[in-house]
Amino acid sequence: MTTHKPRFDMELFSSALTYATHLHAQQTRKGSDLPYISHLLGVASITMEYGGGEDECIAALLHDAAEDQGGKPTLEAIRMKFGEHVAHIVEGCTDAYAEAGAKKPAWEKRKAGYIADLQDASESVRLVSAADKLHNARAVLADYREHGDKVFDRFKKSKDETLWYYRRLANTFREVLPGHLSEELHRTVNTLEKESTPKNNPQAMNTRKSVYAKLDVAIDKILAKKAVQQ
């Protein structure tokens, strides 16, 4: 973990914290009554610990704002309040925008797009995104240890599909953001996969492998299509 301590405008950071708290005031973490701001603070903490500067840490507080709270108008408000670079990071961490009356694209398409965009994303986007995924993976692992497989009921996809997404992200971050943060994410996902695998149940393991393989094929087709379009 880096010991780098960038200079901060704490007044601006405090303003972002207040804004994030206001935006997410009625939101809780999936499957709990824990205020959503706990996640945002966790992501900002990880971002800071791994060398993030002022813009990255402010963006960490706001990384879900456009996706969950107001869509593109919220992104533009962030741009006005905190600058172009912060808005760029928030946009890069968003896989779909909250639009009134509109459905999000299919899960596979959204996740493929997110993974594909990481290939060309700025280092700032990759840092905040990896911090977000690490905090989420740690939370899932901690909740799994307390509640078992019930923790996966909070997700729209199955247990194995959810685990596949974390595995694919961990592998992708190892490629695009080599270093301690990506290795910590990789270790956390490894532990989550290992602990959530039923003991002495080859069928469950075979099912997981089948799900992983099927999703890899589907996502790789989408990624290949996006590459041709660029």
**How far from one another are the termini?**
36 Å
Largest sheet: none
Radius of gyration: 18 Å
Structural class: mainly alpha
State which percent range the strand residues make up: under 5%
User: How many E-type strands?
Assistant: 0
Number of domains: 2
Helix content: over 70%
Order of helices and strands: HHHHHHHHHHH
Tell me the overall shape. Answer: globular
Can you tell me the residue ranges where pLDDT is under 50 for at least 5 consecutive residues?
Answer: none
**Number of H/I helices:** 11
| Global mean pLDDT | 91
Please characterize this protein's 3D structure.
With 230 residues, the chain is mainly alpha-helical. It folds into 2 domains: 10-92, Orthogonal Bundle (Hypothetical protein af1432); 107-229. Helices cover 70% and strands 0% of the residues. The protein contains 11 helices and no strands. Helix 1 runs parallel beside helix 3 and helix 3 (54-62) crosses helix 8 (123-147). The chain is globular, with a radius of gyration of 18 Å.
Write a compact overview of the structure shown:
By secondary structure, the chain is an all-alpha fold. The protein is 70% helix and 0% strand.
